[in-house]
Each structure stands twice: as structure tokens, then as C-alpha cells.
Design brief:
Blueprint lengths: L2 E4 L10 E4 L8 E5 L4 H21 L3 E6 L2 E7 L5 H6 L9 H11 L8 E5 L5 H8 L3 E6 L4 H8 L7 E5 L8 E6 L2 E6 L22 H15 L5 E6 L2 E7 L4 H17 L3 H4 L9 H11 L4 H4 L18 H8 L5 E5 L7 H8 L2 E6 L6 H10 L3 E4 L8
Parallel strand pairs: 6-7, 7-8, 13-14, 14-15
Antiparallel strand pairs: 1-2, 3-8, 4-5, 4-6, 9-10, 11-12, 11-13
């Protein structure tokens, strides 16, 4: 297929719409089911690059959960412990590697992943398709699908679930183009390779970045490569736990991503795990209710008889002091930034969410201040010398 007509562009009024290869060649993907939209394909092609690079960098199956041309989550197949299995609604299940990667990716920010586009680095198996069937999702891109997985996915969304088979051997042209307001932009593709050698320049007193932290820093940097800038990404145990995208100020990125990391960790608090949900409450409603429960909105939203809609009995609140105490136990987090940190306040905020390892470009006139704050908290920081803006 050299050209694919789309229903419309970003919005219903933007017609006609299509995707095609300027050189007349074949599109690098095949539509196996559904009818992809303009934004679906933007998500698909960005997320495919992300998981392909994660696979190459770590040697592990990878997955991403994309929304509006930025990842809500990204992960590789690091086994889940029993707590995270409960948090991610897969208790007592033996998971395949591909399923593990996607469950981790979606678990980073389940509210943002609602209605996501999925990318897998490896073949989609039946177990992953079964998990996807029960989630609210718009489509998936993968290099292949087992026969059983494809049949499962074809039943999703009344048969309209978008399934794209990507050609893993496809290599795009070195130069890329896009138009804005009738003006054509052209640039060399960002073919920078993210690997452990990026983390060799460590200006902080603490120069110890263990192998698992290097893996997590690679995950953060590859994720940032396909996240709308400015962007910051917190990673722990092989998965993004907080992504801040598209902010004009880097400290706002760091706060946004840090707040998401805090929410991810608060979902593992014993009080949250013990919430007495009614059996009929669906996962998206549980996610939304948990988000309210761990916030300052609890007493306002679930006051009077409102709690009875969700719980068999009214749970005790998770107080602000309890939240702060719990978050203070988060540790070993890796943090990547798509450009340099201009001030040490980013490290101050990151430290509150357990960050122990940092990778950033370096080159700010205030690098000394950033290094000083890292040393204050015994954080090991690498200057990569690589900027990863994505627009």
C-alpha cells in the first residue's frame, strides 16, 4: 500500500486527510484491522520507534502506551512483584515477557493511558491481547501477531480496534520533512543512539551508577527522545513511573513528572491496596477513585454518602502526613531530562521522589549549582552532552 485515506486529520473539520510515501514506495505498516486515524498513526509511528530502541538498548521486550503523541508510559520486561501485580490488576497470573512489558507501561499512569495506542517491540501474544481486550485502548502496533492474538483483538471495540503490523526492517530516509502553515521544514533525523557510554561523564562526588540504574537511565532517555519537549522522565525497575511532557519550563516538567511518580508509588500504599471496592466497580472507575483517595480532594468528593457508590464501607483517609511519610520511602529512582537543568531546584524536587541517579545534557551556566545540589543529596549525575528535543 503506497497511500492510505483517513477519515479526517487531527479534527473532523480537517479534510481530506491521508498518509503516503513521497517516493512512491510502500507504507512500512499493514492495517490488519480497523481504520486508523491521523493521531493514531502519529502515536503508532512514534511509539514504534521508542519500543524498537528500548529493545535494542536493553535486550528486553519493550512496550509503550501513547496518548497525543507522547508516551503515558514505557517499560521493558522486568518481572513484577506481588504488590505491583495487585496494583496492575494481574494478581496470581504468570505473565509472558511481552505482557509484562505492556502491563508495566500502562501501569505508569493508568489515567493517562485510558484510550491509549499501544506499541510492542515483539510479537503480540494471546495473553497480551487478552489483557488489552479488557482495557480502554484505541489500537496497537507490533511487528507481528499470533493467530490467536489477532482473533482476540479483532473482537475489541465492536470489531473496530486498530491493529497495525509494522515492518521491523523498515529504515526511513535520513532527511525528514513536515509542513507548518504552508512552510516546509526539513532536518536530519534524530538517529542518536542511547547507550551506557552516555553516562561516563559524572561530575558529582558520587560516581557510582550501578548497571540497573544505567538501564533505567537508558529507558528514560529513549522515552524522552519521543516525548514532546520540554520533557523529564522518572524510571524505576525498568519502567517509567512519571513523565512530564510539553511544558515550557523545565521545573514544571520535573514537578509534573515527580507528582506522577508519587501517585504511582502511593498506589502501592497498604491503605490503597486494602480499599474495599465493590465487586462491580470497573477498573477505570477504580483508577479514578484511587486518584481522588490519595489526593486532598478525598473529603470533598467522597463526603456524605458518595463513598457508597464505590466501597462496601467508608475507608479511612490517607492523610497528608501519611502520604508524605510513604513517599519519603521511595528510593533508587533514575531521572532523565531532554536538555540541561538550568537550576538546582529541579534536583531538589526530584530528590523528594526518591531520585538517586540523573542523566542530563549539561552545558548550563549554572551547572555548578546543579552539581552542588546533587552532592547535597549524594545523587550521582551524568552529563550526556546530548539534547533530545522532540517537536
Amino acid at each position: 500500500m503506497t497511500e492510505l485515506e483517513l477519515k479526517y486529520g487531527c479534527n473532523p473539520n480537517q479534510k481530506p486527510s491521508k498518509v503516503y510515501m513521497e517516493n512512491g514506495g510502500e507504507l512500512p505498516f499493514e492495517v490488519l484491522n480497523g481504520r486508523p486515524g491521523y493521531i493514531n498513526l502519529l502515536d503508532a509511528l512514534n511509539s514504534w520507534q521508542l519500543v524498537k530502541e528500548l529493545r535494542e538498548a536493553t535486550g528486553l521486550p519493550a512496550a509503550a502506551s501513547f496518548k497525543h503523541v507522547s508516551p503515558a508510559g514505557a517499560a521493558v520486561a522486568v518481572p513484577l512483584d506481588d504488590v505491583l501485580k495487585k496494583v496492575y490488576f494481574v494478581e496470581g497470573v504468570e505473565l509472558t515477557e511481552v505482557a509484562t512489558a505492556y502491563i508495566r507501561a500502562r501501569g505508569a499512569d493508568r489515567m493517562s493511558s485510558y484510550g491509549d495506542f499501544v506499541a510492542l517491540s515483539d510479537e503480540c501474544d494471546a495473553q497480551t491481547a487478552t489483557f488489552l481486550k479488557r482495557e480502554v485502548s484505541d489500537g496497537i502496533i507490533a511487528p507481528s501477531f499470533s493467530d490467536e492474538a489477532l482473533e482476540i483483538l479483532k473482537t475489541k471495540k465492536k470489531g473496530n480496534y486498530v491493529v497495525l503490523k509494522m515492518n521491523p526492517a523498515y529504515v526511513p530516509e535520513v532527511q525528514e520533512k513536515k509542513q507548518v502553515f504552508g512552510v516546509t521544514f526539513e532536518q536530519g533525523r534524530n538517529n542518536a543512539v542511547i547507550e551506557e557510554s552516555l553516562f561516563e561523564n559524572i561530575p558529582t562526588k558520587n560516581k557510582n551508577i550501578p548497571d540497573e540504574a544505567k538501564r533505567d537511565l537508558m529507558i528514560s532517555m529513549i522515552t524522552l527522545k519521543y516525548t514532546q519537549s520540554n520533557s523529564v522522565c522518572y524510571v524505576k525497575d525498568g519502567q517509567a513511573i512519571g513523565i512530564g511532557a510539553g511544558q515550557q519550563s523545565r521545573i514544571h516538567c520535573t514537578r509534573l513528572a515527580g507528582n506522577k511518580a508519587d501517585v504511582w508509588y502511593l498506589r502501592q500504599n497498604p491503605k490503597v491496596l486494602a480499599l474495599p471496592f465493590k465487586d462491580e466497580i470497573r477498573r477505570p472507575d477504580r483508577d479514578n477513585t484511587i486518584d481522588v483517595y490519595i489526593s486532598d480532594e478525598y473529603d470533598d468528593v467522597l463526603r456524605d454518602g458518595e463513598w457508597q457508590k464505590y466501597f462496601t464501607e467508608r475507608p479511612e483517609p490517607l492523610t497528608r502526613e501519611e502520604r508524605a511519610e510513604w513517599i519519603s520511602t521511595l528510593s533508587g529512582v533514575s531521572l532523565g531530562s531532554d536538555a540541561f537543568f538550568p537550576f538546582g531546584d529541579n534536583i531538589e524536587r526530584a530528590h523528594k521522589s526518591g531520585v538517586a541517579y540523573v542523566a542530563e545534557a549539561g552545558g548550563s551556566i549554572r551547572d555548578d549549582n546543579v552539581i552542588e545540589v546533587c552532592d547535597k543529596y549524594n545523587v550521582a549525575m551524568a552529563f550526556t552532552g546530548l539534547r533530545l528535543f522532540h517537536h
